[in-house]
Amino acid sequence: MMAAIPNLSISSEKVCFIVVKAREFDAKDVVTEPNPGSNPTDDRAVAVLEDHADDPVFIELTSFIGALSEDERVDLVTLAWWDEATARSTTGRN
Predict the structure, then answer these.
(1) What is the C-alpha separation between 8 and 68, in angstroms, rounded?
(2) Contacts of 76 (CB under 8 A, 6+ apart)
(3) Exposure winner among 4, 24, 38, 59, fewest CB in 10 A?
(4) In terms of C-beta density within 10 A (0-12 exposed, 13-18 middle, 19 or more buried), how is residue 75 classed?
(5) 9 pLDDT band (50/70/90 cuts)?
(6) In 3-state terms, what secondary structure has residue 23?
(7) What is the per-residue pLDDT across 47-81, written as a single tens digit (0 to 9) for each?
(8) Helix (H/G/I), strand (E/B), else coil: 50
(9) HSE on the CB side for 20, CA within 13 Å?
(10) What is this structure's pTM?
(11) How far apart, in whole angstroms, are the C-alpha atoms of residue 94 and residue 88?
(12) Rounded distance between C-alpha atoms, residue 93 and residue 39, angstroms
């Protein structure tokens, strides 16, 4: 039996945007050339897939989450833990 999903302050569009951006960020690889001197077009723009400190995806994601209201951020954390909480309640695990 699934627990009822509560009414949320955060819209599904915002949640979807965060999920997409989080997946983009999670796909990053280690930095192979910390100071590339070439044009991104010349090196096939592979640096965009590397985890640089000034990563625009990270900046966009953290800025977006930072701009959410407190209620929306609470709901976001709730959603992140929802799967774990429902699994524990249906299996009786603590």
Answers:
(1) 13
(2) 10, 15, 18, 65, 68
(3) 4
(4) buried
(5) very high
(6) helix
(7) 555 666 667 788 899 999 999 999 999 999 988 88
(8) strand
(9) 8
(10) 0.62
(11) 6
(12) 54
